[in-house]
User: Fold this.
Amino acid sequence: MNKPKRHIFVCTSSRATGQQKGFCHSKSGVDLMTAFIEEIEERELSDEVMVSNTGCLGLCEKGPIVIVYPDNVWYGGVTSGDVAEIMDEHIEGSSIIKRLKL
Assistant:
C-alpha cells in the first residue's frame, strides 16, 4: 500500500491489553470503524484512504471521536449514519462538516 492521502482514526476505546471497553466502544465505535471501511471499499478508495482504530482520546463526553489526517480535523458524536456524509463532504469534497467538528 502506498502512503494514503488521508488517514481516518476512529476511537474504539482499545486498551494496551487489546481489550475494548469504554465510552466510544459502548457507543458503537467498532461498528463506526467497520462502516468507514465498507464505505471506502465501496468507493474504491482503499489506495487513498486508510482507517485505524485508536485507544481513548480523552474526550469521552464528545465520543465517538473520528480524526481525519493530515487535515487534523476532529469530529465528535459521530454515528454510522454520518459516515457517508464525512466521505462525501470531507474525504472526497474537502469540506469540513461544521456540525460534527470539535
In short: The chain has a mean pLDDT of 89. Helices lie at 23-26, 29-42, 83-91. The radius of gyration is 13 Å.
